[in-house]
Amino acid sequence: MFCYQCQEAAKGTGCTVAGVCGKNEEVSNLQDLLIYTIKGLSILANKGRDKGVDLDPVDHFIMNGLFMTITNANFDDQAIKAAIKEGLVLRKTLKEALEAKGVALTDLHDCATWYAESDAALEAKADSVVVGVLATENEDVRSLRELITYGVKGMAAYAHHALNLGKEDKEIYAFTTKALAATVDNTLSADDLVALTLETGKYGVNTMALLDAANTGAYGNPEITEVNLGVRNNPAILISGHDLSDLKQLLEQTKGTGVDVYTHSEMLPAHYYPEFKKYDNFVGNYGSAWWKQKEEFASFNGPVLFTTNCIVPPKGEQLEKIYTTGASGYPGCTHIEADENGNKDFSAIIEHAKRLAPPTEIETGSIVGGFAHAQVFALADKVVDAVKTGAIKKFFVMAGCDGRMKSRDYYTDFANALPKDTVILTAGCAKYKYNKLPLGDIGGIPRVLDAGQCNDSYSLAVIALKLKEVFELNDINELPIAYNIAWYEQKAVIVLLALLHLGVKNIHLGPTLPAFLSPNVANVLVETFGIGGITNVDDDMKMFLQ
Ligand code: FS2
Ligand code: SF4
């Protein structure tokens, strides 16, 4: 195996024996083969785009398959194998449809033609170097190909959530297959791939806008909300991940059953949506970011539903109380499938909750969030006044991901060290490094404004663009906003590319720069966009405030 797609890549270069995330060699290689198969399907889909071929099943499969390979989403070898086989069946149907339209299918890349008669042959293919990251020998070309692939994975996750709410944009699918096919095209130069990387950011913005419209269209605009951190004395289900349509179905099905529902990690922002406030069994948020789940799931007592990543491999007794759905999966856990209409039957987890004890309280009090674009626009006068009077000197976008590395304490220390006339704009699970600190407020505006999940980084960009308009600036970089972003997995990659597309410069990325950036590719990002890493709180604070 070789994987270097996330911030925890072993030794800062790549996982080669087993993933730091817990992914074993078999699963890693199968994920590579799934991506390889998806790239082959993409080549074929591109040939059918303007030929009137029905590409919906292929596009939807690609979005789900990409999502399955995101860090900490799916550890289930059987589920990944089944997806590869489904891809091969779809490929056969697609080839027949293309041939019926007179499309020539000659000189195809191996990823569009490989086939395995047996499971053993499929596993042997997965283990071969040609399907993996190291198949590309030139480190700069490899770096760009992987940067595009990871950006597209993040995009696929967001497009998949939107699709679950019935919203899609076929241009996003067309770009996805174009980009993936480009990553196996040896005729493209490094410059072509750089251009494609930037174009990926453009579609990242479109995808986050699509998901924002899907979420707010279905559940209303997030609003200022106090989220309870304590517990009640009822049996309960903990829901994690990012999929709001799963949460909606779970709340509908638990209503009146005596089973409470709490959010964990990236599901916290669901409390900000008006629609979910209607459920009096939707009690609050339990615990913190994804990497704390071992202890927090134990004290929660009840079962846990994963709608997406991040899963920390569960062990022993924990296995049986974990349920997965959507693109997520873990061997030995119960997976809940949707029917053909997207409906899911959560009765098994609800009955399971009734047999277990209520959650043990680990915190009390509340936290405040809900500062997505509509809520911030509603407060615009107040915010603009605070900037004009100098009450707010600077905003710090500290969005992205949290993680288990000790070096991430930097973000807590940084938040604590920020001058009192600064405000943190956050989104994603990165917030757990500072959302419970007593940072106070500035004239009633909390010093940590949480827009929502990682995809709601889109809201932060919309807010920045609005401020640029209000202050009549020519360039988004003239705003008093600094970007100190923490990354972990591939959704953070698409968020970064989206910000670059919007023209944001001088973004600092930590705790370490991606292992998949070769020195030359990193240089391009430094020279073109002023991207930088982090050092220590004191030096970085001086740099950001000068
Ligand atoms: Fe956090 Fe994990 Fe949101 Fe990432 S819960 S690192 O998936 O996508 O962010
Ligand atoms: Fe390693 Fe991250 Fe890949 Fe897991 S996802 S194998 S931790 S680089």
TrEMBL record:
<feature type="binding site">
    <location>
        <position position="242"/>
    </location>
    <ligand>
        <name>hybrid [4Fe-2O-2S] cluster</name>
    </ligand>
</feature>
<dbReference type="InterPro" id="IPR011254">
    <property type="entry name" value="Prismane-like_sf"/>
</dbReference>
<comment type="similarity">
    <text>Belongs to the HCP family.</text>
</comment>
<dbReference type="GO" id="GO:0005737">
    <property type="term" value="C:cytoplasm"/>
</dbReference>
<dbReference type="InterPro" id="IPR004137">
    <property type="entry name" value="HCP/CODH"/>
</dbReference>
<feature type="binding site" description="via persulfide group">
    <location>
        <position position="401"/>
    </location>
    <ligand>
        <name>hybrid [4Fe-2O-2S] cluster</name>
    </ligand>
</feature>
<feature type="binding site">
    <location>
        <position position="489"/>
    </location>
    <ligand>
        <name>hybrid [4Fe-2O-2S] cluster</name>
    </ligand>
</feature>
<feature type="binding site">
    <location>
        <position position="266"/>
    </location>
    <ligand>
        <name>hybrid [4Fe-2O-2S] cluster</name>
    </ligand>
</feature>
<keyword id="KW-0560">Oxidoreductase</keyword>
<dbReference type="Pfam" id="PF03063">
    <property type="entry name" value="Prismane"/>
</dbReference>
<dbReference type="InterPro" id="IPR016099">
    <property type="entry name" value="Prismane-like_a/b-sand"/>
</dbReference>
<feature type="binding site">
    <location>
        <position position="454"/>
    </location>
    <ligand>
        <name>hybrid [4Fe-2O-2S] cluster</name>
    </ligand>
</feature>
<dbReference type="GO" id="GO:0046872">
    <property type="term" value="F:metal ion binding"/>
</dbReference>
<dbReference type="InterPro" id="IPR016100">
    <property type="entry name" value="Prismane_a-bundle"/>
</dbReference>
<feature type="modified residue" description="Cysteine persulfide">
    <location>
        <position position="401"/>
    </location>
</feature>
<comment type="function">
    <text>Catalyzes the reduction of hydroxylamine to form NH(3) and H(2)O.</text>
</comment>
<dbReference type="GO" id="GO:0004601">
    <property type="term" value="F:peroxidase activity"/>
</dbReference>
<keyword id="KW-0411">Iron-sulfur</keyword>
<feature type="binding site">
    <location>
        <position position="21"/>
    </location>
    <ligand>
        <name>[4Fe-4S] cluster</name>
    </ligand>
</feature>
<keyword id="KW-0004">4Fe-4S</keyword>
<keyword id="KW-0408">Iron</keyword>
<dbReference type="GO" id="GO:0050418">
    <property type="term" value="F:hydroxylamine reductase activity"/>
</dbReference>
<dbReference type="InterPro" id="IPR010048">
    <property type="entry name" value="Hydroxylam_reduct"/>
</dbReference>
<keyword id="KW-0479">Metal-binding</keyword>
<protein>
    <recommendedName>
        <fullName>Hydroxylamine reductase</fullName>
        <ecNumber>1.7.99.1</ecNumber>
    </recommendedName>
</protein>
<dbReference type="GO" id="GO:0051539">
    <property type="term" value="F:4 iron, 4 sulfur cluster binding"/>
</dbReference>
<feature type="binding site">
    <location>
        <position position="15"/>
    </location>
    <ligand>
        <name>[4Fe-4S] cluster</name>
    </ligand>
</feature>
<feature type="binding site">
    <location>
        <position position="310"/>
    </location>
    <ligand>
        <name>hybrid [4Fe-2O-2S] cluster</name>
    </ligand>
</feature>
<dbReference type="GO" id="GO:0042542">
    <property type="term" value="P:response to hydrogen peroxide"/>
</dbReference>
<feature type="binding site">
    <location>
        <position position="3"/>
    </location>
    <ligand>
        <name>[4Fe-4S] cluster</name>
    </ligand>
</feature>
<keyword id="KW-0963">Cytoplasm</keyword>
<feature type="binding site">
    <location>
        <position position="6"/>
    </location>
    <ligand>
        <name>[4Fe-4S] cluster</name>
    </ligand>
</feature>
<feature type="binding site">
    <location>
        <position position="491"/>
    </location>
    <ligand>
        <name>hybrid [4Fe-2O-2S] cluster</name>
    </ligand>
</feature>
<feature type="binding site">
    <location>
        <position position="429"/>
    </location>
    <ligand>
        <name>hybrid [4Fe-2O-2S] cluster</name>
    </ligand>
</feature>
